[in-house]
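Q: Study each token:
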Amino acid sequence: MQRLIFEPEHEQFRDSVRRFMKAEVGLNWEKYRREGMVDRALYTKAGELGLLCTWADERYGGAGMDDFRFEQIIIEENVANGDLGFYINLHSNIVAPYIAKLGSEEQKARFLPGAVSGDTILAVAMTEPSTGSDLAGMRSRAEDRGDYWLLNGAKTYISNGILGDVVVVAARTDPDRPHGISLFIVERGMEGFERGRKLEKMGLKSQDTAELFFSDVKVPKENLLGEAGMGFKYLARFLAQERLVVAIGSLAAAQAAFAETLEYVTTRKAFGRPIGTFQNSRFTMARMRAEIDMAQTYVDQCVLLLNKRELSAEDASAAKLLASELEGRVLDACVQMHGGAGYMDEFRVSRMYTDARITRIFAGTSEIMLEIIGRSLGLDERKLASGA
């Protein structure tokens, strides 16, 4: 189906991104999966081509392209022709915006140029070993010691945990308030900041995920991001874009898996004819094609709403829910259509199948997405009980 969201300049940009992803990323997936992370040089090479933080102001080295469709293209082409372990989406679309929108002029001048060039790789640390995604139960603490903040705690499941040079860390600064959380910029080399294990995962084998430990880390006062005690609100503020990023990647994965499977069922034969000619195969492929196109239209509309600063939490949650759930169904069907070959990692659908499982969990589980959407309909137990 033709996608009406893009203009000629977007398609020209896509061509250049595709060439980069194929040549610099896609050809090395075996190496990255074996080593458990991508090369740092990928970030600097992407930076040289202007593929990092395309939205960043020119005074920080960016292109100043205030149009999320360019970032959407980068995400899609990395999924289709690169490698999911290259977490360019986290770097450019999840972490860097915290600095750009919450940071002081001094912080933006210090950190954004490196993020744009790829010399500074970004990460964000929220999840903790004992609390998971329950931010109200966060145990990491930062105490105001006058000239600095003293940070202690542990984080886990941190993407870019090994490669990350600058980490936005959430920590409790007000023990008397459940949401008394602040955000801090912690830099590689700060005394007391240590990396733990590089964690082994079901999928995303080439993406480094690690434990982080903070033991009496003296964080300079100028590294507080935004206002003290506002971290919980800040995190909620950026969730809509984060969930849209996941939705874009999920649909790109579904599109790529469909294309791989269409080629396979066209050439693979059983009982003397291509397996795609059997009715069940035709119907399965037809249903996937229709569902992917429908979901793509919705996600594209959400991108346009984001450009207009009108993307709601409910719409972003719906996009994330539908795209990630569809990705799971499509990958399962594609593995089945490949038969035994689909279980072999030499076939891409096998790797994509395990990679896809996380998208229904991170950035808010499917169950949380349903809660958000349901409450937007007025189906809130507390409000209904009070008659409001």
